[in-house]
Amino acid sequence: MFVHIAGTGSYLPEKVLTNDDLAKTLDTSDEWIFSHTGIHSRHIAADGEETSDMAVKAAGRALAEAGVKPEELGGVIVATSSGDYRSFPATASLVQARIGATNAGAFDLQAACSGFVYATRVAQGMMQLDPRPVLVIGAEAMSRLLDWTDRNICILFGDGAGAVVLKASDEKDGILDSILGSDGGSVPPVISCTGGTKVCPEDPVGGKMHMNGRAVFNFAVKIFDDTIRRMLERHGLTFDDLSLIVAHQANARIIEAAARRMKQPLEKFFLNMNTVGNTSAASVPIALDEAVKAGRIRQGGLVASVAFGAGLSYGGLLIRW
Ligand code: UT7
């Protein structure tokens, strides 16, 4: 049995926050942000617009494209670190009810920015036991986790959702391979000190996200080509066989460094952080959907994804479209 991506969909909130908007209240500039990240603007969820609202919109679009009815789904997985509720119910349960996926199991998966890649692999495994289609969503309201006075972090993130519908088929190819990894250390380089059992000494009240950006940057550059190379080698393929690389949209400089290491032209990498920013677990599925809609992913094309984030977690997908 092979598992194919039968449809993709995404949703970005209406409100756009530009670097110039941020520079009105922060000691920063469009020039600094763009030259250090490749980001010009990001979308921000409206007051009262929750992670599940964005997930439902992206899901509806992916289901319509796949021609799958919600009641046919065997599972709904939402990869998120910013669900509607801190602990429970799962955002996936809210989505399952809202879209009418009456026969599906539903749960959230938290692997930070790598969440969508993790969820896709988990869904693929579930489909070996029950071949009904699975809806995999990455959805984040990162704007609710940020300290808007911290220029080191708040300039990076945006809100949004992306979704794919996975379908089982006897037709060859689809998701060829995946890799999941974790490099947890004693001092996590990215922490959101909100609502867990641990009181963070640097943020005893909670509610803020802390990050050692440099540490994440260096980690990302290291695992980027290594993860894709390992998947390709297992299939007797090389970087030259790839038609597109759809990576986590954290920072254009990470992607440029990876392109140099892989000796691949930058045109082979899909970039949308310019207008979307870093949407954490929603980043890869939004980028996949935009790449499909832009005609950058075609039937038969070989696509690699790689994601990395808090944990430090990382993962990769190799897909023959
Ligand atoms: O999704 C996964 C999670 N996170 C990531 O992917 C983040 C990965 N890391 C990065 O993208 C980069 O490390 C950043 C964009 C976060 C930072 O870029 P950097 O080139 O590593 O800059 P830096 O942190 O070394 O800071 C350089 C300088 C500092 O000033 P001093 O100490 O040299 O005087 C910062 O205070 O830039 C300053 N700075 C800023 N200046 C203007 C930091 N943020 C800003 C800002 N505007 N927004």
Write up this protein.
Helix 6 packs parallel to helix 7 (252-262). This protein is an alpha/beta fold and 321 residues long. It has helices at residues 19-23, 30-37, 51-66, 91-99, 115-129, 213-233, 252-262, 273-276, 283-293; strands at 2-11, 15-18, 41-44, 75-79, 105-109, 134-141, 159-169, 174-182, 190-192, 209-211, 244-245, 302-309, 313-320. The chain is globular, with a radius of gyration of 18 Å. The strands form 4 sheets. It has a 5-stranded mixed beta sheet, sandwiched between helices. Residues 28, 32-33, 36-37, 113, 151-152, 155, 190, 211, 213-214, 216-217, 250-251, 278, 309 line the site of oxa(dethia)-CoA (UT7).
What would a concise description of this structure say?
By secondary structure, the chain is of the alpha/beta class. The chain folds into 2 domains: 2-170, Peroxisomal Thiolase, Chain A, domain 1 (3-Layer(aba) Sandwich); 175-320, Thiolase/Chalcone synthase (Peroxisomal Thiolase, Chain A, domain 1).
Order of helices and strands: EEHHEHEHEHEEEEEHEHHHEE
Instruction: Please give the domain count.
Output: 2
* CATH level-1 class of the largest domain: Alpha Beta
Taking pLDDT < 50 over at least 5 consecutive residues as the criterion, the unreliable ranges are none
User: What is the number of E strands?
Assistant: 13
CATH architecture of the largest domain: 3-Layer(aba) Sandwich
